[in-house]
Amino acid sequence: MTIRSLCITAVAALSLAAGVAVAASYPEAPIVYDKPVKGVVFSHKTHVEKGLACDMCHNRLFEQQAKKAQENKDFVMESLYQGKYCGACHNGSLAFASNTRCATCHIGVKGEERSKTGGKTEKKGH
């Protein structure tokens, strides 16, 4: 285990100890990015339940404003592969690598539509 992994594990353990305060302060609804491609989902809930504290990402990797990162020209998969944004943790050591399990985050246009309608799909004629 690397020093970085140990530090993140320690922060996660402290975050779990303060779980009530952390859990009360994050947006429940998933964020669905639409740039540079539509339908990329991020869930604060999933990450908080794994013991991550807000300051592990915010003001270091991401600003507090939802979807602000998608305005950056380098908010592309290649940057994640280089350890930026989600790729800081999704590197294959701390969390699944950004170049694996694509459908975990990339829900696509239809998935984005379902996320807006609560999972209901509208049937259209052919």
From TrEMBL:
What InterPro entries does the entry give? Cyt_c7-like (IPR029467), Multihaem_cyt_sf (IPR036280), Nanowire_3heme (IPR026352)
Protein's UniProt keywords contain Membrane? no
Keyword terms: Signal
Outline the extent of the Cytochrome c7-like domain: 40-106
Where does the signal peptide begin and end? 1-23
Query: Would the keyword Signal be found if you checked this record's keyword annotation?
Result: yes
Which one Pfam family would you cite for this protein? Cytochrome_C7
Instruction: State the name under which the record lists this protein.
Output: C(7)-type cytochrome triheme domain-containing protein
Species annotation = Trichlorobacter thiogenes
